[in-house]
Design brief:
Blueprint lengths: L1 E6 L8 H9 L2 E6 L14 E4 L14 H14 L3 E5 L1 H9 L5 E15 L15 E11 L7 E5 L7 E4 L3 E4 L7 H11 L12 H6 L3 H17 L2
Parallel strand pairs: 1-2, 1-3, 3-4, 4-9
Antiparallel strand pairs: 5-6, 5-7, 7-8, 8-9
Helix pairs in contact: 2-3
Length: about 230
């Protein structure tokens, strides 16, 4: 299994995704597009993961390399690759398929409950989850929903938290992959984003969360996607 991960900031790493891949013995490679790394050819990976980051598709002119990433996503869709997008990555999947990113009704930073939507009942991954469950969030935007996609979950602060397309493409606005180290790194680089908004945890709250249950959900998603392409 060859997994390729696109990373958009040095402080926003794959977290539990990378440790999961190493435990499984999978080949795990990375492209850091923010520093000018060249994207791989699609024959070099089986599973594409597109991470979050401080960039936004709403300002695609500011980060032109996001256009290259969307081109790779389109090619990966056509080649029937497994694809997982997280936060910005979910937005880029949707953008590559014609659905525009929008501002979320609320900024969300912290752990808040996800609520499953009706299409989750027939989804091979989200049907395994309880009706409500905690997830980590750190975002201002939210993805559009491409034609033919299934909207799977929402939060009180954001109506588009997860979608799937076919049986091997998932977009997650939330962060199921973050570890305590990820949160510490995010605070160190993005502390100015913390405020007294309705869905924003304090620094102390962010550092106090137990992430095991959240990370377990990420592993369920990863196990499913890796199994379907073997």
């Amino acid at each position: 299994m060859r997994i390729h991960c696109i990373i958009h900031a040095a402080f926003e790493t794959p977290g539990v995704i990378e440790s999961w891949a190493k435990e499984k013995g999978y080949i795990f490679s990375e492209t850091h597009t923010y520093r000018g790394d060249k994207l791989p050819e699609i024959n070099l990976f089986d599973f594409l993961i597109v991470m979050g980051g401080p960039q936004s598709p709403l300002r695609i002119d500011k980060w032109s390399y996001l256009q290259d990433e969307m081109h790779l996503i389109k090619k990966s869709v056509a080649a029937n690759k497994a694809i997982l997008g997280i936060c910005l990555g979910a937005q880029l999947i949707a953008e590559s398929l014609g659905a525009k990113t929008e501002r979320s009704p609320h900024r969300e930073i912290g752990v808040f409950p996800m609520e499953l939507l009706p299409d989750a009942a027939s989804d091979p991954v989200f049907s395994k989850f309880p009706q409500t469950f905690p997830a980590m969030h750190w975002h201002n935007d939210m993805p559009g929903i491409p034609k033919g996609a299934r909207l799977l979950a929402k939060t009180a602060g954001c109506p588009r938290q997860a979608f799937s397309i076919g049986d091997r493409i998932y977009g997650l606005q939330c962060h199921l992959e973050m570890t305590k180290q990820n949160i510490s790194d995010m605070i160190a680089h993005c502390e100015k984003e913390l405020s007294t908004d309705l869905y924003v945890d304090s620094k102390q709250q962010l550092l106090s969360h137990d992430l095991q249950e959240i990370n377990n959900k990420m592993i369920i998603v990863l196990d499913y996607l890796s199994a379907i392409i073997k």
